[in-house]
């Protein structure tokens, strides 16, 4: 069978690693190829490898670029695929001041790969709109994991009383906005459960101080258990290439409130979108959710399309057609 080597430079627990784990262990994909994960330095040279296809899950930067060029030259005939897990339109607006320079880095980096995978339609449109990836190289494959355990969670049908925030405690996730918005709600019989760890933990705890309705649960060993204890999932992300939490919330039948950014716009029928990014926008939306009757949430069906799309792409780039969808 073909040997597919996945290069990873950030193993921080979270959605990206769970998607990579699914990609490399899914039975449908494993039946057609051997998938191996190799951890590499986030800043150093990339190793010489032996594989039929290399899939990059690397963070692109000017520091990384010379190593990518050297790797491409060393493996000139080897099909290379890059999955862009991070950069989006909203990321650029929020974090990049020298945008022309940033776009130049992305164009040069992406040009070294035979295929560039966008993890959402919104990200793919942005990559094309900015001329960062040619149409023949761009592949849109929305991320996925096995959702069977989430679908088995009993459906929630009562009023919203427990709001859940699940993810890394990082500025990207916007949990500071959520905490401030939640504190504006007068209801004493509601709660905000925050699951995750990260660099913003202390600042978020300080922002929640004095409100006994806000609970921090730390790292969640079982995401299924976290979803089973909440009525609504809030995603106030400042940017989000895809949004695995939205996929899981829908599979669990939980009501979903999302920021109107990037890949979160594809969170499906039944999701509510907050059009503004202010604390007041979020407070008013949450207040409405507390008074509404339960609504049905469409469960996603992403697993098979994810696997089939990867099988087709691998078949396209392999020199010998040995994959079968």
Automatic annotation (TrEMBL):
<dbReference type="Pfam" id="PF13439">
    <property type="entry name" value="Glyco_transf_4"/>
</dbReference>
<dbReference type="InterPro" id="IPR050194">
    <property type="entry name" value="Glycosyltransferase_grp1"/>
</dbReference>
<protein>
    <submittedName>
        <fullName>Glycosyltransferase</fullName>
    </submittedName>
</protein>
<feature type="domain" description="Glycosyltransferase subfamily 4-like N-terminal">
    <location>
        <begin position="48"/>
        <end position="148"/>
    </location>
</feature>
<dbReference type="InterPro" id="IPR028098">
    <property type="entry name" value="Glyco_trans_4-like_N"/>
</dbReference>
<dbReference type="Pfam" id="PF13692">
    <property type="entry name" value="Glyco_trans_1_4"/>
</dbReference>
């Amino acid at each position: 069978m073909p040997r597919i080597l996945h290069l990873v430079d950030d193993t921080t627990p979270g959605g990206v690693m769970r998607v990579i784990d699914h990609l490399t262990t899914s039975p449908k994909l494993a039946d057609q190829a051997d998938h191996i994960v190799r951890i590499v330095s986030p800043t150093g040279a990339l190793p010489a490898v032996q594989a039929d296809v290399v899939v990059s899950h690397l963070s692109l930067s000017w520091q990384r670029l010379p190593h990518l060029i050297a790797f491409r030259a060393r493996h000139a005939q080897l099909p290379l695929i890059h999955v862009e897990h991070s950069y989006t339109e909203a990321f650029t607006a929020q974090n990049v001041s020298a945008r022309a320079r940033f776009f130049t880095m992305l164009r040069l980096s992406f040009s070294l790969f035979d295929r560039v995978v966008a993890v959402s339609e919104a990200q793919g449109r942005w990559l094309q709109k900015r001329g960062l990836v040619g149409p023949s190289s761009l592949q849109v494959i929305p991320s996925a994991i096995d959702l069977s355990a989430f679908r088995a969670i009993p459906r929630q049908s009562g009023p919203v009383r427990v709001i859940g925030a699940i993810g890394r405690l990082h500025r990207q996730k916007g949990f500071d906005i959520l905490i401030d918005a939640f504190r504006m709600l007068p209801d004493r019989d509601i709660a905000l459960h925050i699951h995750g760890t990260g660099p913003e933990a202390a600042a978020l705890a300080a922002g929640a101080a004095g409100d006994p309705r806000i609970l921090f649960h730390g790292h969640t060993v079982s995401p299924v258990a976290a979803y089973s204890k909440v009525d609504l999932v809030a995603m106030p992300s400042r940017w989000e290439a895809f949004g695995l939490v939205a996929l899981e919330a829908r599979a669990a039948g939980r009501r979903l409130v999302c920021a109107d950014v990037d890949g979160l716009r594809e969170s499906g029928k039944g999701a509510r979108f907050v059009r503004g990014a202010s604390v007041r926008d979020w407070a008013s939306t949450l207040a409405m959710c507390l008074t509404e009757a339960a609504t049905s949430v469409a469960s996603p069906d992403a697993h098979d399309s994810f696997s089939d799309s990867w099988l087709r792409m691998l078949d396209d780039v392999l020199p010998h057609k040995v994959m079968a969808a």
